[in-house]
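Q: What does the predicted 3D structure of Aspartate-semialdehyde dehydrogenase look like?
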Amino acid sequence: MTGAGGEGTCPVTGQGGGSGPIVGIVGATGAVGTTMLRLLRDRRFPAAEVVPLASARSAGKVLDGGLKVEELADRNIGGIDIAIFSAGGSISREWAPKFVEKGAIVIDNSSAFRADPEVPLVVSEVNGDLVAQTPKGIIANPNCTTMAFMPPMKALHDVYGLRSLVASSYQAVGGAGQKGMDELAEQIPTLLGQREKLVDAGAEAYASVTASVHAKPIAFNVVPWLGSEKEGGYTDEELKMLSESRKILDLPELTVAPTCVRVPVMVGHAIAIRATFAREVDVDEAKAALAAMPGVALDDVPTPLEWAGRDEVVVGRIRKDLADPCSLNLFVVGDNLLKGAALNTIQIAELLVEKGLVRT
């Protein structure tokens, strides 16, 4: 393992000395991977060395901060204490067990292990204690949409006893990675040059652009379909909201009615939620519980644009349901690249160090 220029260690925090864990980032050149590297540096994670790993075509590339990318290969994975994956499910399924065999604890940001009953699915503020229970040496990071509303739901569940959710997401194109953002950016000028058709000949405007990343053209549009079709006409993205909410909150009987929608926003997922509880809710009491929850902020009218780049998930539009005194309506926004992905993985790594589960 080498740092910048291929010589010696390259502590990401500048705190070196070889006393902390060695951290590997698999998929280090992607949007989430580069954010992970930045967070390790900005949060002064006590790593003795950080090793960026990626495909052979990226090997040798020098990243911001001077770290040099190494090829994801058997010869380069020994000695790593914490391996953080953000390279897709197939890479995780192939390589995570190899890192574990070499002595690493794996934090995986894909969907590969989320449903595995022997792999904890962790949101740091909600069930962070589970990092000590890793029979397979792997900790899973939840889907970015589910992640956003887990801290506020945990805060409310502890007060009222959560029973059911109706959750409709408004998901940014950044959830599909850089290629998702690029497709939106490419479609905007074409359609903006046809403003009149956007008003009175929408089908013609629609036909003038093509979609390869999203299910349908996304610029100036809303697409109520993400993922692949599963049972009952639901998508896998929607069913993740059900299964992952149950697992994270440890509520196997929780009912969830999910709808996932792609919107023309670069970064930041939003979720409109109707949450039903075991007892009557009080808005002021609910707001106090949310404000006291780590990682949660309050804003009367939160929007993805103004909260992009911020660590917290934000909750607003908090209203008692018009028909059911035991239900609360609210709107949650979270940066899908930060708390929805990179930030939570780094927080899990911090918990591993804090609890003495890796060398320090």
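A (community wiki): The structure tokens above were generated from the sequence. The two ends are 18 Å apart (CA to CA). The chain has eleven helices and twelve strands.
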